[in-house]
Write a structure and sequence with these properties.
Largest sheet: 11 strands, mixed
Shape: globular
Distance between the termini: 22 Å
Helix content: 40-55%
Strand content: 5-15%
Radius of gyration: 34 Å
Structural class: alpha+beta
Strand order of the largest sheet: 1-2-3-4-11-5-10-9-8-7-6
Number of strands: 11
């Protein structure tokens, strides 16, 4: 009877449970706030649709009706079910972060102070504006404001003062950009109250850290400029959507959503029986409504978002696109004033202030963005290569020609479906208009249009198809920068001989590029995976120039729109990254045998002495050689051993920092083989050299293979023989290389692990059944090594997902979907 295998705990479920438990323990105030908001929404009825005006703050509520309690109650009661959900999400994210930064008690009084002050100041300002003019951007004073997010936003802005340099910038720039977007586009009273609370929270935060030295925002003015510029462009793109979601938009930039015009149903009914000149516009509005026309109306939004993605990467094509769209928006605003769609009345007219501010904001913001983008053009120099430009131009041109021809031919065939007789000239003009977003056609008249059938379908969708192809082609072109990397392997090796650490030789492997300082005395080997540049091992630096070398490579990547990350660096480089404001996380441990301490005596070395003695007794020898010195029979045996090892794995050989048989062929690499008395190779190892001042000072283990059916203990035999010979040769260290995602024995795991560390830990756990990293690390501990932590340094936590995927792709070398699935199956025991 077969034994029943005991059930294994679901490790993923246990990890998830641990994360949830830790979150609950660390954020009781945030969780309580979410619960209070939800309870207040249920008790007051706003969760079920009641208006909750009794609890809302505003000029009428406070000054006219005497509801003095509303500045306090308004920070607990949301105004709708949607507002409740969004507020709870904000409490569990941004407000939870503020709790971690400020602490529980300080968060409570900061939140209460900012919320009350924000509501009172905003109410007073609201009343003042209402007495001057009934401004469109500010709703009538009777409208109550119910918004717990006001308190949370103010607290988050206050907490930003105590945040790290990077997150201080992120919270403030992103926060104020989003708040301004809703205020300028949607224009609802809640948005302005939140903005006032955020400003007060920022001021309170600055007061909290008064007299405390603060680190300036982290390095890379080029990177910061690109990020901020992209964010602002994205905000101008998302603004119209915010206005639509807020009910149509009342802010000074709300003209961007005016193409969602409401039609007059009575007039449309009348036009169905009797034609009138007024019917042209009303029927055109009906025809241009629906999914297709709605998507066309969103084309400017989509184009600005696409431009923002490219601007963040420094793309010149994205700059051109953003300038074109912002410029056209400004021109449309100017034309609206000229054509009389927006009329600024005389000073005596109470609407002059409203529409005057509308015109200034609408025109000034768009054209101001054009001026800023042109002024900052030097920060966006990354151009696609000629092949990508030709492909993009050909694709877009062919699509435009095909769509235009389809529209012209179809509309010619179905002319009878138009509301009036149309000529060839009318069809040509309308064909061109089909590719222009409706907001750009304001005040340019309404030509004929079809009312039903295939002509109407093509009329509504042909422009959508073209712009969809344009956007996809633009995004694809972003992936093809001009690749101007200096590839001088010999110069890199010369610098390596000057001194490159125990892992520096990995920089010579195939697939790596090399960057050099202007004077040629420093170098960085890196692997570019998409838009991530993974620098491998410690940079090669001239004495006293570590900081300049690191910063130079970062600038080089920023100029090309790449995200730099330094993989497998040692402790001595961490002060540089701390000074730059970067973050770093452990990605493994290097095990190093210090040869001066190598004795092989004592009980601690017993597990190594026994295999060594047994192998020597059985007639095994350690053969030192190079690949070029191998005989044909030896090469065939090594190839056989390698193929057996690969065939036994679910996945192919890993790369990146793990060498293969190809790297073992390098003339500078030593091979140490375990050969039995019959000349049969049982174990193959390769050793990379490390130098200092032109002299070899150590060997680093890389490639390790053994016969599946070979005797045990031969790997220990080879490693000890290598170490003893290296000691006899006067070398200093023998490195057994790094163990991915390993921790030093006896050291507890970090409590506050980064997202990337957790991601890489899960990848390592998934690869463990297939590659045995953990067991290999335990094996290396037999040799009494010195542990040297390896780190990954990165500039921006927002890029962690792309960096994590880049590391995975670098190890698996463009993994297929099947290989990724194999990793997952291996991690959960599917292929053992």
């Amino acid at each position: 009877m077969a034994a029943v295998e005991p059930a294994r705990p679901d490790l993923a479920a246990l990890r998830s449970l641990s994360v949830v438990r830790r979150y609950i323990t660390e954020h009781p105030v945030a969780l309580s706030a979410a619960g209070v908001v939800l309870a207040c929404a249920a008790l007051t009825g706003t969760l079920w649709g009641d208006d909750g005006s009794l609890w809302g703050v505003g000029p009428v509520a406070v000054f006219s009706q005497g509801r003095w309690w509303t500045p306090l109650t308004a920070i607990f009661v949301p105004d709708s079910a949607v507002d409740t959900i969004l507020t709870v999400l904000l409490a569990l994210t941004g407000f939870a972060y503020a709790e971690r930064v400020l602490g529980r008690l300080r968060l409570l009084w900061v939140t209460l102070a900012v919320a009350l002050a924000g509501n009172l100041v905003a109410t007073a300002f609201h009343a003042l504006l209402w007495t001057v003019s009934d401004l469109r951007p500010v709703e009538a004073a009777e409208t109550p404001v119910l918004d717990p997010a006001t308190a949370m936003v103010g607290a988050l802005m206050a907490a930003s003062a105590l945040a790290s340099a990077l997150w201080r910038r992120r919270i403030r720039v992103v926060g104020f950009a989003v708040l301004a977007m809703f205020a300028l586009y949607a224009g609802d009273t809640d948005a302005w109250y939140r903005l006032v609370a955020a400003v007060l929270g920022l001021l309170l935060g600055l007061w909290l850290v008064r007299g405390t030295p603060r680190r300036s925002w982290h390095r890379s003015s080029t990177r910061e400029t690109r990020s901020v510029t992209a964010l602002v462009v994205a905000v101008t793109g998302l603004g119209p959507l915010a206005a639509v979601l807020a009910g149509g938009g009342r802010g000074p930039l709300s003209f961007a959503v005016s193409f969602f015009t409401q039609y007059d149903e009575n007039l449309v009914d009348l036009c169905a029986t009797r034609y009138s000149p007024l019917c042209d516009h009303q029927l055109a509005v009906v025809v241009t409504r629906g999914v297709g026309p709605g998507l066309m109306a969103l084309v400017p939004v989509a184009l600005l978002l696409v431009a923002a993605l490219g601007l963040r990467r420094g793309r010149r094509s994205a700059l051109v696109l953003a300038v074109a769209v912002e410029g056209l928006i400004g021109v449309v605003a100017i034309w609206s004033v000229i054509a009389g769609t927006v009329s600024v009345g005389p000073w005596a007219d109470p609407t002059w202030l409203e529409y005057g501010l509308w015109a200034i904001a609408a025109i000034g913001v768009s054209l101001g963005m054009v001026v800023v983008l042109v002024a900052l053009r030097r920060f966006f120099p990354v151009r696609a290569d000629r092949r990508a430009v030709v492909w993009f131009t050909g694709t877009v041109s062919a699509t435009l020609a095909a769509c235009a021809a389809t529209h012209l031919v179809a509309e010619s065939i179905f002319r009878q479906t138009y509301v009036q007789r149309v000529s060839v000239t009318d069809l040509l003009v309308e064909t061109l208009r089909r590719f222009v977003p409706p907001s750009f056609l304001r005040n340019l008249g309404q030509p004929p249009y079809p009312t039903h059938g295939a002509a109407l379908l093509i009329y509504q969708w042909v422009g959508v198809l073209f712009w969809a192809v344009f956007i996809v082609a633009m995004l694809r072109m972003y992936r093809f920068p001009q690749h101007a990397v200096v590839a001088d392997d010999e110069h890199y090796r010369r610098l390596l001989r000057r001194g490159g650490g125990t892992l520096g030789f990995m920089g010579t492997w195939r697939g790596n590029d090399h960057w050099y300082t202007a004077d040629g005395t420093g170098a960085v080997a890196f692997r570019r995976v998409g838009d991530v540049a993974l620098a491998i091992a410690d940079p090669l630096c001239a004495p006293g120039k570590r900081d300049q070398t690191v910063r130079g490579f970062v600038d080089y990547c920023a100029d090309r729109g790449w995200s730099p990350a330094f993989y497998s660096i040692h402790d001595e480089f961490l002060p540089i990254f701390r000074e730059m404001g970067w973050s770093y996380t452990s990605v493994g441990e290097e095990t190093v045998m210090v040869l001066a301490d190598l004795t092989l005596t004592g009980k601690a070395w017993q597990k190594v002495r026994q295999p060594l003695t047994r192998a020597e007794r059985d007639g095994f020898v350690a053969l030192w050689t190079r690949w070029d010195d191998l005989t044909a029979d030896q090469i065939a045996q090594i190839t056989e051993i390698d193929e057996q090892w690969v065939a036994d794995k679910v996945l192919p050989e890993l790369g990146f920092t793990l060498g293969s048989i190809e790297e073992a062929k390098d003339p500078d690499v030593a091979l140490v083989l375990a050969v039995d008395s019959d000349g049969r190779i049982q174990v193959v190892t390769s050793w990379m050299p490390s130098w200092r001042s032109g002299r070899r000072v150590g060997w680093t283990l890389d490639y390790m293979r053994r016969r599946v059916d070979g005797p045990n203990g031969l790997m220990e035999f080879v490693i000890v023989k290598t170490a003893l010979r290296a000691k006899d040769d006067g070398l200093e260290v023998v490195s057994l290389s790094g163990a991915p995602l390993a921790s030093k024995p006896g050291v507890a795991a970090e409590n506050d692990r980064t997202l990337l560390a957790s991601l890489l830990e899960q990848v390592a756990a998934a690869l463990e059944p297939a590659y045995g990293f953990a067991s290999l690390f335990r094996f290396k501990s037999k040799f009494r090594p010195e542990y040297r932590t390896l780190y990954l340094a990165y500039s921006d936590p927002v890029e962690l997902p792309s960096i994590g995927m880049a590391v995975l792709r670098a190890y698996l070398s463009e993994p297929s979907a099947r290989e990724i699935l194999a990793v997952a199956r291996a991690g959960y025991g599917g292929d053992r």
